[in-house]
Amino acid sequence: MLEVIGIIFMVQGFGSLLVKEVFNGSEWFLMEWATPYSPWAHIAVGVIGFFLAGGGAASRRRKRA
Q1: Do the domain assignments include residue 45?
Q2: What keywords tag this UniProt record (predicted)?
Q3: Which of 8, 34, 35, 52 is the most buried (most CB within 10 A)?
């Protein structure tokens, strides 16, 4: 479950940054709060998601062993 939450965070953070900065699109609904702090808030959300997904995968591997 932690991996799914991490992946959602990564998609929201990095995806909204990509859409906003590269394609000059509008802000994603869930990331509208981060507009004044862009691009650092988007990067931070993506990195948090990366660590959540990695922690979930590591936890699952430890449970199997």
Answers
A1: yes
A2: Membrane, Transmembrane, Transmembrane helix
A3: 34
Q: For residue 65, what pLDDT is reported?
A: 62
Cβ atoms of 28 and 61 within 8 Å: the answer is: no
Angle between helices 2-10 and 40-64 (to 10 degrees): 160
Burial class, 13, CB count within 10 angstroms (exposed 0-12 / middle 13-18 / buried 19+): buried
pLDDT tens readout for residues 5-40: 999 999 999 999 898 888 887 777 888 888 888 899
For residue 14, tell me if it sits in a domain. Answer: yes
Half-sphere exposure of 56 (CA within 13 A, CB side): 13
Distance CA 59, CA 54 (A): 9
